[in-house]
Amino acid sequence: MSSARSSAGDPARTLALLWRDHAVVPRRGPSRGLSLDAVVAAAVEIADKDGLDAVTMRQLARKLDVAAMTLYTYVPGKAELLDLMLDAAYAAMPRTATAGQPWRKRLIAVADENRAMYRAHPWASTVSTIRPPLGPGQMAKYEHELSALDNLGLTDIDMDDCLTYLLTFVQACARAETSVRDIQRESGMNDEQWWAAAGPLLSRVMDEKKYPLATRVGTAAGTAHGSAHNADHAYQFGLQRVLDALSLLIDKASRRQSPAV
Amino acid sequence: MSSARSSAGDPARTLALLWRDHAVVPRRGPSRGLSLDAVVAAAVEIADKDGLDAVTMRQLARKLDVAAMTLYTYVPGKAELLDLMLDAAYAAMPRTATAGQPWRKRLIAVADENRAMYRAHPWASTVSTIRPPLGPGQMAKYEHELSALDNLGLTDIDMDDCLTYLLTFVQACARAETSVRDIQRESGMNDEQWWAAAGPLLSRVMDEKKYPLATRVGTAAGTAHGSAHNADHAYQFGLQRVLDALSLLIDKASRRQSPAV
DNA sequence: CCGTACATCGTACATCGTACATCGTACTGT
DNA sequence: ACAGTACGATGTACGATGTACGATGTACGG
Question: Is B1 a domain residue?
Answer without folding.
Answer: no
